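Before a colleague's protein record goes any further, I have to sign it off. I want your independent view on whether this chain really folds as the tokens say. The record follows directly below this note.
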Amino acid sequence: MDISSWLTKNWNVIVQNPITFIVWGLIIAGFAYGAARLQFSNEISALKERISLRDDRIADYERKLEGASPDEAASRIAVLEGRIAELEPRALTSDQLKILGKELRNEMHEIRIVHNLGSIKSSLIYNQLLSAFDKADWDVTYNTTLDEGENPPSGIAIISSEASNNAKEIVLRAFDAAKLDYDTLDSDHPNSPLMLLLIDPIVPKP
């Protein structure tokens, strides 16, 4: 119901009691003004709090960067991200695992996967490769070593013999398809099965 209809319907009552009507009108108007002022005050306070938080973040950012320019800040962030990446374990992506599964499936060759216990960052990829070859129905054996004799820069050595050349070609094709870095080495034993040696990759010095 709009105001004009309400006034028309209650005009006689209003005329008979004008003081009461005015008083109630003032009271209602006062409550409405107070509610509106409170809401506006709350909005102003929230806005001031957001501005203060933004200023604090900017000040903290400037303090951490010690007045560095945007280019210097980007360089520092890149260095920090590189340091963090060096601490993270090496791992295959889900896409790489799918490609390996497709390329290795049903070949049923023998492979030995060895992990150097001194290489902490390669422990995850070691387990991922064990699982990938096992799911592809390869005859997988595995063990660990502390021997520091082989240090492939990529962190993955594919060590083959004359007897394992066929298996080697399949693994090379699979690793290339998955864009996985590796090094190839020749085994000292002509009849030994194909072997993967996993160590932490060698990070070139800047």
